[in-house]
Design brief:
- The chain is an alpha+beta fold.
- Helices cover 19% and strands 25% of the residues.
- It has two helices and four strands; from the N terminus they run ββαββα.
- The strands form two sheets. Strands 1-2 form a two-stranded antiparallel ribbon. The chain has a two-stranded antiparallel ribbon with strand order 3-4.
- A hairpin with a 2-residue loop joins β1 and β2.
Length: 80
Amino acid sequence: METGIKNWGNSQGIRIPKEFLTQLGITTDTVLDIRIENENIVISKVFRHKTLEERIKISGKPLENSGEFDYGKPEGREVW
């Protein structure tokens, strides 16, 4: 697919088809890396670890607080 560079305010921009963005899971908040490789512009998603809240939301299950856990009596020189 061919596209062109267009003026966008005081900058220039490239339009990326929605199908491409959907297929790659890119939204307006996605952080991208842009670099030059072998005289080509390469745009990549930046890997970012998900927060605990994001992981819980993705799982679709509520976070259950099971309270304290009893590990039994100390068996060495543990400090409690």
